[in-house]
């Protein structure tokens, strides 16, 4: 997975650009802080990579396209993307894989109310955002 070589660095840059701490990102993606820390670990032997649903959550919460977290130029075959946590045996059909991916997308789609809250949050000032986090006890 050469296209994941700089994932940790790109993830960190995207997170910092949104002014999120590792803890903030962990809470948004509903994972442990230790998981986010290992996603961003400099030492490849200690590093973890997100599963497909986590990768989708990262893109959604960081408001970045998937290719901004990956190294598409490092892919051996750009038409074939192997994502961690999404593996299919030779007996699985493409339809099954696409159905599973669709289920994952449906799982993370915000409701209208959630989308409205997100729009309002994004349009608020930094001070209001800090107050929101204080109200939430974070």
Q: Could you walk me through the main structural features you see in this protein, from its secondary elements to its overall organization?
A:
This protein is mainly alpha-helical. Helices cover 54% and strands 0% of the residues. The chain is built from 7 helices and no strands. The protein has helices at residues 7-17, 22-29, 33-39, 52-62, 94-108, 112-123, 126-135. Helix 2 crosses helix 3. It is globular. The mean pLDDT is 81.
Shape verdict = globular
Q: Which spans of ≥5 residues are poorly predicted at pLDDT below 50?
A: none
The biggest beta sheet reads: none
Helicity range = 40-55%
The number of strands is: 0
Strand content: under 5%
Order of H and E elements = HHHHHHH
Number of helices: 7
Outline of the structure:
The chain is an all-alpha fold and 138 residues long. It has helices spanning 7-17, 22-29, 33-39, 52-62, 94-108, 112-123, 126-135. It is 54% helix and 0% strand.
How do the helices and strands line up, and which of them pair or pack?
Elements: H1 7-17, H2 22-29, H3 33-39, H4 52-62, H5 94-108, H6 112-123, H7 126-135
Helix pairs in contact: 2-3, 4-5
